[in-house]
Amino acid sequence: MKRYSAERGMPGQLVAANSSVSTEPTAQDTDSTAAGRGTPPVRPATFIIEPATDLVYLRCVPFDREQLAAKLRRLAAQGVFLGTSSWKYPGWFGKIYEQDRYVWRGRFSKTRFEQNCLTEFAQTFPAVSVDATYYKFYDRATLTELSAQVPDGFQFAPKVCGDVTLKQFPQLPRFGARAGRTNPHFLDAALFSDSFLSPWEPFRDKVGLITFEFSRFGQGDFARGAAFVEALDSFLEKLPRGWPYGVELRNRQWLRSEYFAMLARHGVTHIFNAWSDMPPVVEQMALPGSITNPALLAARFLVREGRTFEQAVKKFMPYSEIKDPNPEGRAAAVELARRGLKSKGETKVMVLVGNRYEGHSPGTVNAIVEVIGGEE
């Protein structure tokens, strides 16, 4: 039997018992409380999920694109958006895409597919993470082309360009002469507003989540998590209001009360994220104060804990089928959706799934929706 926890007074927050994320107060928490800078974590109460639940989340679910699209539309109409991380995957032919649509002069055209497949994608899904915006700033013309391919109500979740979120440029060829150097524009609010946010302004109604993804920081970047929280606090204070900002961390030890309290002050969402070095989403959901913006809940299921991105790519390519189902992750996604449905429109939910999580993100979404479908 699996035991999960829910903090008293905060319904819907779950966590696996024996969580790797501490919920006990530390000396730092005690000092912060005394200074009026936050609330120390409290010991959660126990909520029990019967073992049979795993069978529900592991059962084989037939994939019917039209039925999935209809279910996703019904959920989106209630403020619950489920989508994928990126969309240009030939491995989805026969399920999400029809290859014949992208034939040019008798041959499949990769260029034609990548330029136009968002239209077909949006016939099934109501939301998508735009991961490519992490690698370069998109201009208004490019965003106009993207927006034209999706219907009204569709929700983009663009990732903020690494030129803003990287403290030091990685030693990768794509960074050229900048590789290994300190980023002078780390958390540059003016650069973010002018180069990233401004081009999205005409399409604001189609922006469901702006993802500030912070790669794992090393000791040379910040001596302690509190220093990052202070820097992020100052940055968020300078940003234009009214946008759906979300922060995704890759330093598990920084998921503390000060971090959550700071996001809450700014009305910014902590994005629950499944990643190699992060605790499972179900554990993050149980941390006191982790719901930092009750109006917007967001989760990105990217890579299973303990598995590197490179290992996931090797294991799952070409992303045409589920190879490693994760019932705990699916249960967390369902719980988030339930909270949105129960809120009757007061809480918007964005759940985004990557191929490297189970092997085939459309299939994962289909399995999640199958469970939610019986509870609408």
Describe the structure.
The chain has a single domain (63-373), classed as Protein of unknown function UPF0759 (TIM Barrel, Alpha-Beta Barrel), CATH 3.20.20. The chain is globular. The strands form 4 sheets. It has a 6-stranded parallel β-sheet. A 3-stranded parallel β-sheet has the order 8-9-10, covered by helices on one side. The protein has helices spanning 27-34, 52-58, 65-77, 110-121, 140-148, 162-165, 189-197, 225-237, 257-266, 281-286, 309-316, 327-342, 355-358, 361-373; strands at residues 2-6, 45-49, 80-85, 103-104, 107-108, 127-130, 155-158, 210-213, 245-248, 269-270, 272-274, 296-301, 348-353. 40% of the residues are buried. The two termini are 27 Å apart. By secondary structure, it is α/β, with parallel strands linked by helices. The chain has 14 helices and 13 strands.
